């Protein structure tokens, strides 16, 4: 019954819009009519379709999703729930938040653990270090940025502090990354860009607004960061109405990327690598998902940047030591990239200012 109703409704709507019975009012409002027709088609188009990029993070099997319209850009009419299925697992997402590909639906963390992660970053450093040992699930390197207070502060002073290490501003770094990605994008029909550890979408928004990419995926482990990213994206109307760029927010683990082999043209990770608990797994996964000729652009810190933080916290056992990876040299980073699969001759690393490392490498 429902299928026949949909078919009839579509026939009537399409026939009307194609001029079978057009009144003067309809002619005057043709643009509005076309918009309403597109809206109706979006709402009725619920047939599952295999996503060309996303995959089950556990099995790497293909995922089917029930809508083909942009996840954030294009579904402004109602809040929709998305189901992504592989032969082995089911994942969920909503149009108002993100696609959660961190773990299968139903495998939620406990309330106690979530509360713990929220409260710990607000506690003074010495006590925070002691409390971290009380909860086996709290991993400072992974969970510091899951706090809503950190997500709120990220673009309100936190990120600006990176200038002391020599980081370029967000606009300049985005331009540097896009210039490096241009050759790989020129050879691609898909033009898929991943912004890994996107935080509040500082770079995701810039990549999407450029109009250079067919699909931009902002990815992060932190649900609170993704919620803040979604809020900021919705505050920019042009990102919501773009016809050229499909914009998605994805919750994931960089050590277990939910994407197909050879499916991504370019991957950016701004001030992120020092926050990844398992660097070997992360680099292997990044290499796996990049297409041949795909490019990786990243910025991170040399360990010298954290010296002052350690001294302020009372030594090498302070929270900054627990929360970040320490890269003592450029060669250490180069070895990590080679171990992940990149060829040494395809890796270029430079240091800006005191401690900002800029990484460019091609698969």
Plain-language structure description:
Keywords: Signal. The protein has 363 residues and is an alpha/beta fold. Among the domains are: 34 residues, no CATH class; 200 residues, Rossmann fold (3-Layer(aba) Sandwich). The chain is 39% helix and 20% strand. The chain has 15 helices and twelve strands. Strands 1-2-3-4-5-8-7-6-9-10-12-11 form a twelve-stranded mixed β-sheet, with helices on both faces. Helix 1 runs antiparallel to helix 3 and helix 12 crosses helix 15. The protein is globular.
Tags for this entry?
single chain, 363 residues, alpha/beta, Rossmann fold, 39% helix, globular, disordered N terminus, signal, S-adenosylmethionine-dependent methyltransferase activity, Methyltransferase type 11 domain-containing protein, SAM-dependent_MTases_sf
In brief:
The chain is 39% helix and 20% strand. By secondary structure, the chain is an alpha/beta fold.
Give the CATH class of the domain at 163-362: Alpha Beta
Estimate the strand proportion: 15-25%
Helix count, DSSP H or I runs of 4 or more residues: 15
Q: Which blocks of ≥5 consecutive residues have pLDDT under 50?
A: 1-6, 8-28, 73-77, 110-116, 122-136, 315-322
Question: Could you give the distance between the termini?
Answer: 51 Å
The CATH architecture category of the domain at 163-362 equals 3-Layer(aba) Sandwich
CATH H-level name of the domain at 163-362... which superfamily?
Vaccinia Virus protein VP39
Largest beta sheet: what is the strand line-up? 1-2-3-4-5-8-7-6-9-10-12-11
């Amino acid at each position: 019954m429902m299928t026949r109703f949909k078919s009839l409704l579509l026939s009537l709507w399409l026939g009307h819009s194609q001029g079978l019975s057009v009144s003067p009012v309809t002619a005057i409002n043709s643009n509005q009519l076309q918009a309403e027709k597109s809206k109706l088609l979006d709402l009725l188009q619920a047939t599952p379709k295999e996503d060309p990029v996303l995959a089950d993070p556990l099995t790497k099997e293909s995922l089917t999703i029930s809508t083909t319209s942009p996840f954030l850009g294009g579904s402004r009419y109602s809040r929709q729930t998305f189901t992504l299925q592989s032969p082995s697992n089911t994942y969920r997402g909503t149009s108002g938040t993100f696609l959660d590909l961190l773990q299968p639906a139903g495998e939620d963390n406990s309330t106690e653990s979530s509360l713990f992660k929220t409260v710990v970053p607000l506690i003074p450093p010495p006590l925070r270090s002691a409390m971290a040992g009380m909860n086996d699930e709290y991993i400072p390197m992974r969970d510091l940025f899951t706090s809503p207070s950190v997500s709120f502060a990220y673009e309100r002073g936190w990120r600006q502090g990176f200038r002391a290490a020599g980081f370029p501003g967000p606009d300049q770094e985005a331009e540097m990354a896009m210039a490096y990605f241009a050759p790989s994008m020129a050879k691609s029909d898909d033009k898929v860009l991943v912004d890994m550890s996107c935080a509040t979408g500082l770079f995701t928004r810039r990549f999407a607004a450029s109009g250079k990419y067919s699909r931009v995926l902002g990815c992060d482990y932190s649900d609170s960061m993704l919620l803040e990213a979604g809020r900021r994206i919705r505050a920019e109307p042009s990102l919501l109405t773009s016809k050229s760029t499909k914009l998605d927010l994805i919750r994931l683990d960089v050590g277990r990327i939910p994407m197909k082999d050879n499916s991504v043209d370019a991957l950016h990770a701004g001030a992120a690598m020092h926050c990844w608990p398992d660097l070997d797994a992360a680099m292997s996964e990044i290499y796996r998902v990049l297409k041949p000729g795909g490019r990786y652009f990243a910025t991170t810190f040399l360990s010298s940047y954290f010296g002052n933080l350690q001294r302020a916290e009372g030594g090498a056992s302070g929270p900054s030591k627990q929360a970040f990876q320490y890269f003592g040299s450029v060669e250490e980073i180069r070895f990590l990239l080679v171990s992940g699969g990149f060829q040494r001759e395809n890796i270029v690393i430079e240091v800006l200012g005191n401690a900002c490392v800029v990484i460019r490498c091609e698969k």
